Amino acid sequence: MALYARIKQYLDPPAPVMEARVFVHLMRHGEAYHNLGHSNDQINVQSYAIPDPSLTDEGIKQAKAARERMAERCAVPDLVLTSPLARTIETTLHIFPVVNNGSRAPQPQIVAYDDLRESGAYLCNVRQDLTVLIDGYSHKGIDFATLSPVVPPIKSVIRTAQRSHVVRKEILSIAKIIRQGGGIWKGIYIQGPSVKNVGRYRGSNASKDIHIVVVSHGSFMKHLLPGKLYPQVYQLPGQN
Question: pTM value?
Answer without folding.
Answer: 0.82
